[in-house]
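U., I forgot to send this yesterday:
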Amino acid sequence: ERLAARPGDDAYGAVSVRVAYRATASTIRRVPPEVFWPRPKVESVVVRLERLGAPPVDVDEDRLWRVLDGAFAQRRKTMRNALRRLGLGPAEADAALAASGVAASARPEELSLEDFARVASAMPA
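Result:
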């Protein structure tokens, strides 16, 4: 489910954004625990990944991955705090978020790939 999760979903995280950068993910069907041996305590899903010809956003990948890793390192933290953990000062973090149109109080699990790309592009080099 994490592969196909969308912003706001409980399963949404860094892997969801990384997949969205390279593919379109969709859940095909749920697989009940009783079809596995030993039986897991969770339900599984089959996910279809359709590779994209090119990433849907134009951004430096290394910067994007750095922002993603920082943002999702601690769940439920704000983007302002995530950027501060990446070494930006308060003014730099606020400026990057303002330039990208992302609220300083936004949480990573609410942001789309496009939002993360704008933040990564707005960060100082």
